[in-house]
Design brief:
With 140 residues, the protein is of the alpha+beta class. It is built from two helices and nine strands; from the N terminus they run H-E-E-E-H-E-E-E-E-E-E.
């Protein structure tokens, strides 16, 4: 009987500790203000991992280098920044989470394992409000 009580008490204490705010994932999902997705022919378009764009010239260069249709979108870089996630797989997903306490944003991409010619991409614009760092680097 004592063994059952101790086991139940241990489980209860573990639940309280693990469900406390100190152990909870404090990063919250962030949605893009605008998003563009597609594919480009260049196999190396996404070399170097997620890219952060903070100036119109950088976005124009990306749009031209990748031969994307139309003009680059209008982005107010004083209020927003662009994140680019790429994959050689046939499909791509991206995950953006913010730690509100530190002002840190984490951007990750996940592509399927079936490599295809070209590069799939997701380009998203995100609010600068409260964001100081992206993927461990200072947001300029």
């Amino acid at each position: 009987m004592m063994r059952v009580f101790c086991s139940a008490a241990t489980v209860a204490v573990a639940q309280v500790i693990l469900c406390s705010p100190a152990f909870a994932d404090e990063k919250k999902p962030v949605k893009a203000i605008k998003e563009w997705a597609g594919s480009v022919a260049d196999d190396n378009a996404g070399a170097g991992g997620p890219k952060i764009i903070t100036e119109a010239k950088e976005l124009e260069k990306l749009w031209t280098d990748w031969k994307l249709e139309g003009k680059p979108p209008e982005v107010d870089f004083t209020k927003e920044f662009i994140a680019v996630v790429t994959s050689r797989g046939s499909k791509i997903s991206h995950f953006v989470k913010a730690d509100e306490k530190t002002g840190s944003l984490t951007i990750n991409g996940l592509g399927t394992r079936d490599l295809r010619p070209g590069t799939r991409y997701v380009i998203g614009s995100y609010s600068r409000e409260g964001i100081k760092m992206v993927n461990g680097k200072e947001l300029k």
